[in-house]
Amino acid sequence: DRRMKWRPGHLAAAAALWLAACAAAPPVTQPVHTFPEIEARQTFSVGYRQISDRYLEKLSVRSLAIEGIKGLNAIDPEFSIAERGEDIVIRSGSRDVRQWPAPGAGDADAWSRLTVDAIAAARRHSPGLGAAATELLYESVFEGSISLLDSFSRYSGAEKAKRNRERRSGFGGIGIRFSAKPEGAHITEVFDGAPAARAMLLQGDIITHVDGQSLADIPRQRIAKLIKGAVGSTVELRFMRAKGAEPIEISIRRARIIAPTVYLKQEGGVLFARIKGFNKRTSKQLSGLLAPVLKHRRDSIRGIVLDLRSNPGGLLSQAVKVADLFLGDGRIVSTKGRHPASLHAYNAHATEVARDLPMVVLINGRSASASEIVAAALQDHERALVIGSASFGKGTVQTVIALPNKGELILTWSRFITPSGYVLNGLGVPPYICTSVLSGTVPEMVDATVSNAPNLTRMLERWRGSAKGGLAEKKRLKSICPASDQRADFDGRIAEYLIANRDAYQRVLSLSPTIASAEKP
Predict the structure, then answer these.
(1) Are 384 and 357 in contact (CB under 8 A)?
(2) DSSP state, 132?
(3) Residue 521: predicted pLDDT
(4) Looking at 70, 276, 321, 394, which residue is catalytic?
C-alpha cells in the first residue's frame, strides 16, 4: 500500500499550515454595488491631471493619488495604503491585500488605473467598502486628494454639481422661492417676469399639489425637484391663496430661471442696490434696474449705496462687469496663478453710469470673493466710500472642472490683486468708516473718522503694502477693524448722511492715499 499513512505529527503540521493559510488570506466578499471601473479610471485621470496642472502650487499626480486612496479609510478604518520601496501596498488591518509597482510620478492614466484597482481589491475584502455606493467612493478618493489643497478647493458629486450649475447659469422652473411647510410649499418670493408671475402666483400662496402629487410633509429638496423640469414643459399646480380657501388649479409652462440677485429701492434721494450674489445675470439685472430710475428720476437721486454685506461672491466676470458700470477707466482687478491661462488683467471700458453721484459701498465680514473685487476696485479708484467692517478676505479664483462622472472639481488656481496692488486673500477690503469699533451718533462716527485721518491713511498705506509683511502683518491689520457679520441699520444711515453732506463725503474720501497706477501689471 503506497498511500501516505498519517501520523499524529503529520496531522499537527497540516493543521498548522491550514491555519497559517487562513490567517494570510483575508476573507473575500461579494460587493453589494457594481462599480463603473472604466468611468472611474477616466474620472480620476482627469481629476489628478487637472489638479497637478492647474492648482496654485505644484503637486505630483503620485501624491494626489496616494492621498486619494488613503481617503477610503474614511469608509473602512481598517483599510490603509503603504509605500514599500518602489511598490504600493493596500492593507486590511495587519494583512496585505494587494501590491503593485508604483507608476511614474506624473502619469495620471497609470495612477488612475491603480486607484481603481485598489478600490476593486479593497471592496472584495472590506464589507464597508463593498457596500459603499459609487458616489461615496468617488467622494472619499477626491476628498483625500483635496486634503492637500486649500479650503476653497472641493469636489462636488453629480447631484450637487447639477445644483451648482443651476445657481450659476439657471434651470427649468417657474421662478419662485419657497419654504417647506406641513401643508406644502409656502411661496416667499415670485421673480419678476417669470412664469409664476405671469400666472399671477403671489407671495404667501401655498402650493399643495404638483402634477397631482400632494406636497404635504415633503422635504424642500424633493418639492424643488417636482417643480423644476425641462424648459418648455408644463407643470400642473394646485394652490391656496389663504388657509381654508378654495384650491386653485393652474398649468404653467416652465422657462429658464436665473434667480434674481439684485434688489433696488429708493429711500428719500438715495438709491439702495442690494446685491446678494453674482450669477450670470447680476450685472445685466443691476444696469436694467438702475437705467429707468436714472433716466426718469435723475433729479431726485442724490447718491447710490451698493450693499454687498453678507454677499459670498460668485462669478468673477460678473464682479468685473458690476465694477465696470461705475468706473470710467483703469484696472478693476488682476489675477495671477501658476497656469498661464490664469493670468488676466481686467480694465474698465468707459461706460460709467451716474458718474456725478456720490457712492457708498457697504461690506461686512461675510462679504467675500466677487463682492470684495467690486468694493476694492471702487475704493482704490476713489469712486466710492467703503463702510462697515473688514471683509472676509477670500481672494482666490476657482476654476470649475467638469468630470466624466458628471461631478465637478472646484479648484483654486489664481489670486486676486487689487488696482493698488495688494492681494485680497487672507486680508480683505478695509472700510473707511469702521462700524465694528466706532460708536455714537452718525455725525460723531464721521467726525471721529476724519479726526483720525493720519492713522487711517497710514493704515491704508500698510494695507496696500501688506505683501511685504506676511501673515502676521495681515492679522494685525485685520484686527484694526475686526470682521463682523452684522448688517447694522446705522451702516445705511451713515451712507445716507454722507450722501446728503457732500463736504463730509469729500473729507472722508480724501483720506485715501492715491494709488501709484491703475495700469500696473
Answers:
(1) no
(2) S
(3) 36
(4) 394
pLDDT the model gives residue 353: 85
> What are the C-alpha distances in Å from 505 to residues 227, 382, 501?
48, 11, 6
Out of 112, 334, 369, 484, pick the active-site residue. Answer: 369
β-sheet bridge partners, residue 347: 331
The whole-angstrom separation of Cα 81 and Cα 70 is 6
The angle, 0 to 180 degrees and rounded to 10, between the axes of the packed helices 489-500 and 442-451 is: 70
8 burial level (CB within 10 Å; 0-12, 13-18, 19+):
exposed
- Spatial distance between the Cα atoms of 92 and 83, rounded to a whole number of angstroms: 15
- Is residue 153 within 8 Å of 412, Cβ to Cβ? yes
213 burial (CB, 10 Å; 0-12 / 13-18 / 19+) is middle
For residue 197, the SS3 value is helix
3-state secondary structure of 142: helix
Q: Which helix (H) or strand (E) holds 304?
A: strand 303-307
* Residue 102, SS3 per DSSP: coil
Secondary structure element (H or E) that encloses residue 51, with its range:
helix 37-54
Any idea what DSSP says for residue 5?
P
Asked if 154 and 55 touch (Cβ cutoff 8 Å), the reply is: no
Q: In what order do the strands lie in the sheet with 79-84?
A: 79-84, 87-92, 95-101
| 76, 307, 324, 380: the active-site residue | 380
- Per the annotation, the verdict on 369 as an active-site residue is yes
Query: CB atoms < 10 A from the CB of 148, how many?
Result: 16
- Give how far the C-alpha of residue 315 lies from the chain's centroid of Cα atoms, to the nearest Å: 9
Does the annotation count 394 as an active-site position? yes
**Catalytic residue flag (residue 162):** no
Kindly report the backbone phi and psi dihedral angles of residue 517, in degrees, each rounded to the nearest multiple of 5, phi listed first. Answer: -165, 135
Question: Where do the DSSP E strands lie in 211-317?
Answer: 213-214, 234-240, 248-253, 255-257, 262-267, 270-275, 303-307
Q: What is the pLDDT of residue 175?
A: 96
- Low-confidence stretches of the chain (pLDDT < 50) are 1-25, 516-521
Size of the chain in residues: 521
For residue 177, what pLDDT is reported?
96
DSSP state of 298: G
**Ramachandran sector of residue 508 (left: φ over 0; alpha: ψ -120 to 50; beta: rest):** alpha
H-helix segments, 364-423: 370-380
CA–CA gap between residue 44 and residue 71 (Å, rounded): 13
